[in-house]
Amino acid sequence: MLRAASFTLRAAHQSRLAFSQGCSAGARAFSTANTDKVVTATVENFDEHLNSEGLVIVDFTAEWCPPCRMLGPVLKSVVPENGGKLIIVDTDDSPEIATRYSISSLPTVLAFREGKRLGAFVGAQPASFVQDFMKKY
User: Fold this and answer.
1) What pLDDT digit, counting tens, does each position of 7-37 carry?
2) Is CATH 3.40.30.10 what the domain over 35-135 is classified as, yes or no?
3) Which of 41, 50, 58, 68 is catalytic?
4) Distance between alpha carbon 118 and the CA centroid of its chain, in Å?
5) Which of 18, 43, 54, 130 is deepest in the core (most CB within 10 A)?
6) Is 65 a catalytic residue?
């Protein structure tokens, strides 16, 4: 019984590892193609990106968060296609930014225009939801 449980846990870990590596590779490939519309922010450059012209979508995320890994590729595709700019904030690397906006759940997505907060949603959502969210603003 113990051997079977160990095998199952090992298989589950390998499956998660393969999934996360696949997601990372896809994100790297995408980010090199859309560097002006999808940026990873730091404390030093966040305000500059936030005050960009047009609709700015901020994705508060973390590598260890499964719903964040589900939502990330959706945002990276939908936001630029619909004329927005996506700012990705890793809350482990930049907790000060998350604290500024009282982020308590991940993923949290905020919409801004001209530096003013317009709306938000929490949790992984399908592309159609993200498109409708962007159309509001």
Assistant:
1) 333 443 343 444 444 444 444 344 434 568 9
2) yes
3) 68
4) 18
5) 130
6) yes
